Amino acid sequence: MYNATVAYSVIGVYLLGVCAAGMWGAWKHQQGFRHTSKKVQEHYVAGAGLATVAWFFTMSASLFSGYTVSGIVAEAYNLGWVATRWIPAGVGVYMGFLFMAPRLHALGKSRGYVTISEFLFDRYLPPSGAPWVAHVLRLVSFFALQLPIFTYLITQFQAMGTEVRTFTGGQISATTAVLVAAAILLVCDLLGGMRAVAYTDVLQGVVLFIGSIIFLVVQKTELGGLPAAAQFYRDPANAAAPNVALMQNIPPSSTIVAYWDFVFKTSIAATMFPHLSARLFAAKDAAVMRRGMATMNFSFFVVQLSSMITGWVAISALAGPLPKGTSVFSAVLTKVAAQGVGQTVLAALLLASAVCAMMSTADSALLAFSSMWVRDLFKPYLRKHASEGQQIWFGRLMSVIGLAIGVMLGLFTIEKGVPNLTGLFSLQNT
């Protein structure tokens, strides 16, 4: 058993740091409010003024969500080599953005876009199409994009609750973890908007990247790494161990077809996710996006590959079936933490960065949800002459409602165990 006092202290200090970064973002947000008449744009896309570092980390954190830490590790553990599908899928997403981003960013700058549905509406106004076509497309896209928003929210809360419950051995319940995180992200959302989210993304992103590299070393020193795992797979005595056969055999043709189907669907679908497209409108200029995306493609081989290796090593390190509802990632962290105080600090820091990544992504999804209700429904159809202040308050109300729904559904999936993280992401891509 690890030193719980050390672990909880590290997690507490890290969370305080994230809260401080969020409050700094909220202060900058309020400053922006006082010096601009475009309050809605300031709240939802940081006044289209994010610089390179903040934009890179907030874009990365929006994609490296709870699934990257919790879901990919579980996939590698349960599906073997199939988990590698995430690297070509992730690279495909940013290849898609290379085609979309320059034009969307330029239009967003000139026309003040906040949501992708606003672009679709303008694109099909006369003379490109009939007015009713533009309105129908806006409403259809608005309702269709609620699905990825809520699956993202549910995924974060499910992963967060499961990870904390597993790592603490049930001393902190999944419900407590989810409710505390929900309260923190709601405050950031209401007071700080996009700036608060982006500033917290910088801190948690740095820790996640560094932690992913360090944990690769720790897996080798404490758990034997891939060499020990490979030896475990080859040993005939372990042939009946859970998931060993997945690492010994080539996947069947149907699995290979499903692999590439997932890659292509994710590459196309993720470019339309509202919380990702909003980042294109938040960049200060095109040069910021170019620098950020050039760096981002390499990040998949650091963060996601580290998660995959964790799952593959876990097959040998855990060497046995896990209880239902147990997180593979936190089970490995617990095993590492038990080796000593230094290992406990590292494991707790990785868990904290993972939880903050989940909170950040949930906050981004909540902001996108709120912005869509404001710009795609409230302003154009329900209250056409609403002031900037009225739009902000309506958006805050929708944030509270959306968060309440997301928390309830997230806790429901934790309790029932279905759908799991893989099922949720597959649903999202549809």
- Please indicate the percent range of residues in DSSP E strands (runs of 2 or more): under 5%
Helix content: over 70%
Biggest β-sheet strands, sense, barrel: none
Q: What's the number of extended β-strand segments?
A: 0
Number of separate helices: 18
Radius of gyration: 22 Å
* Poorly predicted runs of 5 or more residues: none
- What is the CA-CA span between the terminal residues? 42 Å
Name the shape in a single word. globular
Structural class: mainly alpha
Mean pLDDT: 84
Give helix and strand order, one letter per element, not per position.
HHHHHHHHHHHHHHHHHH
3D architecture notes:
The structure is a single chain. With 430 residues, this protein is mainly α. 81% of the residues lie in helices and 0% in strands. The protein contains 18 helices and no strands. It has helices at 4-34, 39-45, 52-63, 66-79, 86-111, 116-123, 131-144, 146-167, 174-223, 225-234, 244-248, 253-269, 274-282, 286-318, 328-337, 341-382, 388-416, 421-429. Helix 8 runs parallel beside helix 15 (328-337), helix 9 (174-223) crosses helix 10 and helix 16 (341-382) packs across helix 17. It starts with a helix and ends with a helix. The mean pLDDT is 84.
